[in-house]
Amino acid sequence: MIDQTARFEAPVPGQSLTSEPKLYPWETPPELDKIGDVISFYIERLSSQDVMDDLFIALEEGFPLNILVKSMLSTGVMEGMHTVDVSMVVAPVLHEYILGAAKIQKIKVKEFPETKDSQIDAKEKRALASTIERSLEKSPKEDTGKALLEEALSFVQEDAPMTEGEAMATPEETAPEEKPMGLMSRRDT
């Protein structure tokens, strides 16, 4: 049987509107409302060598830069320094500032977190490259087949996206472009 008291412990709809107004920093007007002021605020904080050293340690360990920037800006919003929309405009500036400082220090930076799909794609590309390299080693003579394999190897190693249609189609095999048909399609007049 369902506990009858648990049903009454949930917040009442609109309960947050009955608390004291301007109780939290993000409910008050921001301290900085101009984009230039917000950029100056963060650049001033980041100009300290101690702060940058700590950031560089995290970046060297592989912490993604965009998450670092988002967390800094979210904290600024929660503290009432600026609004969310200003943080969205300021984020690319701070990203480039920290990235530039890290490049000056010759620190390799991971800008964005790696997804499972990108990890799988990278693993598959390495496997494809090693398969093609083994095939090239077994091919004794220089011919168009070997040239195609070398081309495929360079394509895989460049990390260029290759769809099945691009891999299979040749200029002779491409289908003629079909004209759009339907109620909203353009008509030649």
Helix content: 40-55%
Number of strands: 0
**Biggest beta sheet attributes:** none
Average the pLDDT over all residues and give the rounded result: 79
The end-to-end span amounts to 73 Å
Content-based structural category? mainly alpha
Q: Count helical runs.
A: 7
The 3D shape can be described as: extended
Q: Which residue ranges are poorly predicted, with pLDDT under 50 across at least 5 consecutive positions?
A: 160-172
* Radius of gyration from the alpha-carbon trace, in angstroms: 28 Å
> SSE order in H/E notation?
HHHHHHH
Fraction in beta strands: under 5%
Describe this structure in words.
The chain has 189 residues and is an all-alpha fold. It has helices at 35-46, 49-60, 65-78, 84-104, 116-138, 144-157, 164-168. It is 53% helix and 0% strand. Helix 3 packs across helix 4. The protein starts with 34 loop residues before the first helix and ends in a 21-residue tail after the last helix.
Features:
189 residues; mainly alpha; 0% strand
Provide a compact summary of the structure.
This protein is 53% helix and 0% strand.
